[in-house]
Amino acid sequence: MLDKYIAKRSKEPGKKKGDKTARHTIHNEVISAIKPALKVAMKWGYIDKIPECQRLRLPDKIGRIVTPEHFELIYSKCDVATDPADQTCDAEAWWQALLVFAVTTGWRISEILAFTWDEVDLESGMVVTLAETNKPDRDDVDYLPQPTIEHLKAIRGRDRRVFPWNHNDTHLRNVFHRIQRAAGIHLPCRSKTHQHSPRCHVYGFHALRRMCGTENAERLPAKALQKKMRHKSFETTQHYIGLAERMKRHTQNTYVPNFLKKKSDNGDGKAGPNGDSKGETKDDPDASADGQNPPTSSS
Ligand SMILES: [Zn+2]
After folding, report:
1. 188 CA → ligand 1 middle, Å
2. How many whole angstroms from 163 Cα to the centroid of ligand 1?
3. What b/e string do you get for 193-215 counting C-beta neighbours within 10 Å, with b at 16 or more?
């Protein structure tokens, strides 16, 4: 009976146009349906205990996260932006400041656009946000890192908003996407069913917020991160922390050919598919010697 239900349900449309119902949604529906029955079965003595049935919380629920490498690429291509053209600073500086601000504060794009100069002290980097502008309805204080302050100083204009944008949201997104395409960002789209659009292959603004969350998950105490990200519930923050931990664990466990590991150990950050392995042994005799000789001392 359950198999039939799952088979039928998985053919029904999901949230997005052209998508089918997600697997974890069905899984959770099934659990919700059978758990009461199992409870009764236990009460009546048919079973000793309710079998463990975890609700699925898929990592893709959290959405895309900008990688540090992609962030750098995007940052370097802000010169293709022509808007905003009505400010004293140029569009490139505006966008670079926006990106750096977004990733160091983790604020939502709507909060960033609403941010005003009287909420920041450029000397100390202290940011005071008033209750009506942030979501959890309370005043907050945060400190901007030095690079963020420098980027803000570079775009200081007459407008009371830090990031004045006199166009609509769609145009803002379009410019962001154009910068990414110029940076060579082309993300795979996980959906195999819908009609792809250009938006499928670039990051949205929220991916910067997620980057802030996951990159800071290990650097900040959980409560500080929650405050920074302005998560209403601590559970959301913990989800980020859990995700970051899982990602790190996976990265550590992922198989990497030994010669590539050596390469990055030696400070050669560009250990990519284009890396020249012939040059490696010649340029760096220590690396190959390490590989051939068993370690003489254990530490
Ligand atoms: Zn797509």
Report:
1. 8
2. 30
3. eeeeeeeeebbbbbbbbbbbbbb
Tell me which DSSP letter residue 116 carries.
B
Contact 174, 127 (CB under 8 A): no
| Dist. CA 193 → ligand 1 center (Å) | 8
pLDDT digits (tens, 9 = 90+) for 40-79: 888 888 888 877 766 655 444 678 999 999 999 999 999 9
Say how many Å lie between the CA of residue 243 and the centre of ligand 1. Answer: 23
pLDDT digits (tens, 9 = 90+) for 169-190: 999 999 999 999 999 999 999 8
Could you report the per-residue pLDDT of 144-159, keeping only the tens digit for each? 999 999 999 999 999 9
Q: Could you tell me the domains of the chain?
A: 2-56 (no CATH), 68-188+196-252 (1.10.443.10)
Q: How far is the CA of 209 from the centre of ligand 1 (A)?
A: 21
First to last CA, the chain: 58
